[in-house]
User: What shape does this take?
Amino acid sequence: MNYQKYPTAISPLFVTIAALFVCFLMISNIIVNRLFTFAGLIFPGDFFLFPLTYIFGDILTEVYGFKRSRLVIWLGFLANIIMAIYFSFILSLPKPSELTNSDAFNQVLGSTPRIVIASLIAYFFGEFTNSAVISMLKKRTVGKYLWMRTIGSTLVGQVVDTGLFSLIAFTYLPFPALIQIMVLSYIYKVGYEILATPLTYAIVAKVKQIEKVDTFDYGISYNPVALDIEYKKGSKDQ
Assistant: This one.
């Protein structure tokens, strides 16, 4: 089946995938500070959910291209900034005397701004690295070997993301525990990506079939702060 090599109008399916991406990212930022133990090891609360954001990021870049993926990443940043500001504002207001569980709200939501700051810094570098790597590899492989692109981009992106996030978000932990979380999180997220490869293949194939598009980022700028989302047909690779 022949697909367009450049996306056109933003579709309902693209909006749905983008909304799920932002949803998972926000939930992860709220719950990440709830650590849990398993087999004597410490894990962050976003352990099961956050890797899905990378899979969604891979799908967005693979199908719709780096420009559209960049737009969704910025939307996720904006949503998390708004969430952090609003949480801080509400928690700073006087509470009614009848509210007896205020400390619970402060404990759960009060750390969210720090977590969001850590997430924004880590995700800015990590997700843009992931998206750029998968886009560049797609051009190098002429669209072949999707597994190489998804796993390879995760190997690079998660080094940046996990390292920066852990160093900022978990500064209060003893150094051995911090290193343990970093190493385990990295191994788990990369392993998650590898195990999810068949599912990623299936979703990518289905989305491409529905959208009739398979974007190649020829002639684009990988500037993360650019806001251009349109593709010019006939562009040559830079």
Notes: The beta strands are 36-38, 41-43.
